[in-house]
Amino acid sequence: MYKFQPKKPIRSFRDLEVYQKTLECAVIFSTDIKPQLAKQHYDLLEGMTNCALSIPLYIAEAHGMRFSDFKLAVATIEKSMLGCNKMVVYLEQSAGIYGNKIPTDMLLDI
């Protein structure tokens, strides 16, 4: 049987689960994946780093402007969704290119 638990009220962007998860992924990328790709001299590493770090930033920005400029907030959320899609492509490309040189399980788990 499923036990219902109400979620905590959202007081700031830090309470948003989507922010927490994307921040966690950005940290995992920066600490675990980025150094391994740097050893392989991955050409797209700078773009990948910017993409990973910008996703939680866009979520925080959109949360802050949701009442002042709703259309801009939605556009900013769409930027974060675009960043998520780009990051998936970056991770899958690096797993395909360096699959035998770096552990791909972490790349594909994120």
TrEMBL record:
Organism in which the protein naturally occurs: Candidatus Taylorbacteria bacterium CG11_big_fil_rev_8_21_14_0_20_46_11
Superkingdom in the source lineage: Bacteria
Annotated InterPro entries: 23S_rRNA_IVS_sf
Name this polypeptide is given: Four helix bundle protein
